Design the sequence.
Protein backbone atom coordinates (compact mmCIF):
# COMPACT_ATOMS: atom_id res chain seq x y z
CA UNK A 1 0.00 0.00 0.00
CA UNK A 2 1.27 3.47 -0.83
CA UNK A 3 0.37 7.06 -0.13
CA UNK A 4 2.41 10.05 -1.25
CA UNK A 5 3.64 11.38 -4.57
CA UNK A 6 7.46 11.32 -4.64
CA UNK A 7 9.10 9.09 -7.21
CA UNK A 8 11.89 6.89 -5.95
CA UNK A 9 14.84 5.60 -7.92
CA UNK A 10 16.86 2.48 -7.23
CA UNK A 11 20.05 4.18 -5.97
CA UNK A 12 17.99 6.05 -3.35
CA UNK A 13 16.22 2.86 -2.29
CA UNK A 14 19.52 0.99 -2.00
CA UNK A 15 20.88 3.81 0.18
CA UNK A 16 17.83 3.49 2.44
CA UNK A 17 18.29 -0.26 2.72
CA UNK A 18 22.01 0.10 3.41
CA UNK A 19 21.33 2.70 6.14
CA UNK A 20 18.87 0.27 7.71
CA UNK A 21 21.45 -2.51 7.53
CA UNK A 22 24.00 -0.24 9.23
CA UNK A 23 21.52 0.17 12.08
CA UNK A 24 20.80 -3.57 12.29
CA UNK A 25 24.52 -4.37 12.17
CA UNK A 26 25.12 -2.24 15.29
CA UNK A 27 23.43 -4.99 17.31
CA UNK A 28 25.20 -7.89 15.59
CA UNK A 29 28.64 -9.36 16.33
CA UNK A 30 31.40 -8.58 13.83
CA UNK A 31 31.31 -12.07 12.32
CA UNK A 32 27.50 -11.84 11.75
CA UNK A 33 27.34 -8.50 9.93
CA UNK A 34 24.96 -8.19 6.99
CA UNK A 35 26.96 -7.25 3.90
CA UNK A 36 25.80 -4.17 1.98
CA UNK A 37 25.72 -5.62 -1.53
CA UNK A 38 22.73 -6.07 -3.86
CA UNK A 39 23.22 -9.86 -3.93
CA UNK A 40 23.24 -10.25 -0.12
CA UNK A 41 20.59 -12.75 0.98
CA UNK A 42 18.05 -11.39 3.45
CA UNK A 43 15.71 -14.37 3.50
CA UNK A 44 16.16 -18.09 3.14
CA UNK A 45 18.90 -20.56 3.94
CA UNK A 46 21.69 -18.30 2.58
CA UNK A 47 20.77 -15.41 4.90
CA UNK A 48 22.48 -14.76 8.23
CA UNK A 49 19.36 -12.94 9.45
CA UNK A 50 16.81 -14.70 11.60
CA UNK A 51 13.12 -13.80 11.27
CA UNK A 52 13.39 -10.96 13.79
CA UNK A 53 16.39 -9.53 11.94
CA UNK A 54 14.45 -9.57 8.68
CA UNK A 55 11.49 -7.86 10.35
CA UNK A 56 13.85 -5.18 11.68
CA UNK A 57 15.16 -4.54 8.16
CA UNK A 58 11.66 -4.37 6.68
CA UNK A 59 10.33 -2.02 9.36
CA UNK A 60 13.44 0.15 9.16
CA UNK A 61 13.10 0.51 5.39
CA UNK A 62 9.40 1.40 5.72
CA UNK A 63 10.22 4.06 8.33
CA UNK A 64 13.05 5.58 6.29
CA UNK A 65 10.88 5.81 3.17
CA UNK A 66 8.17 7.57 5.17
CA UNK A 67 10.65 9.96 6.83
CA UNK A 68 12.75 10.83 3.80
CA UNK A 69 10.20 10.72 0.99
CA UNK A 70 6.81 11.07 2.67
CA UNK A 71 5.66 7.78 1.16
CA UNK A 72 3.89 5.20 3.32
CA UNK A 73 4.52 1.67 2.10
CA UNK A 74 3.70 -1.65 3.71
CA UNK A 75 6.27 -4.18 2.59
CA UNK A 76 5.19 -7.28 4.52
CA UNK A 77 1.62 -7.64 3.33
CA UNK A 78 -0.47 -10.31 1.66
CA UNK A 79 0.87 -9.36 -1.77
CA UNK A 80 4.47 -9.90 -0.65
CA UNK A 81 3.70 -13.15 1.13
CA UNK A 82 1.76 -14.60 -1.80
CA UNK A 83 4.47 -14.10 -4.41
CA UNK A 84 6.12 -17.23 -5.72
CA UNK A 85 9.57 -15.67 -5.25
CA UNK A 86 9.84 -13.67 -2.05
CA UNK A 87 10.66 -9.98 -2.56
CA UNK A 88 12.84 -10.32 0.54
CA UNK A 89 15.32 -12.83 -0.98
CA UNK A 90 18.12 -10.30 -1.47
CA UNK A 91 18.81 -6.61 -1.04
CA UNK A 92 18.29 -6.19 -4.79
CA UNK A 93 14.89 -7.92 -4.83
CA UNK A 94 13.82 -5.87 -1.82
CA UNK A 95 14.86 -2.66 -3.59
CA UNK A 96 12.90 -3.66 -6.70
CA UNK A 97 9.84 -4.46 -4.58
CA UNK A 98 10.06 -1.11 -2.75
CA UNK A 99 10.24 0.64 -6.12
CA UNK A 100 7.25 -1.25 -7.48
CA UNK A 101 5.13 -0.25 -4.47
CA UNK A 102 6.34 3.32 -4.07
CA UNK A 103 6.10 4.22 -7.74
CA UNK A 104 2.84 2.39 -8.48
Sequence:
Amino acid sequence: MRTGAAMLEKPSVLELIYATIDEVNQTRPPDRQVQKRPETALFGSASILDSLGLVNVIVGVEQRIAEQFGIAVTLADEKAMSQRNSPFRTIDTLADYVLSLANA
About this structure: The CA atoms of residues 4 and 58 lie 19 Å apart. The longest strand covers residues 2-3. The helical segments are 10-25, 51-69, 78-82, 91-102. The chain has a mean pLDDT of 89.
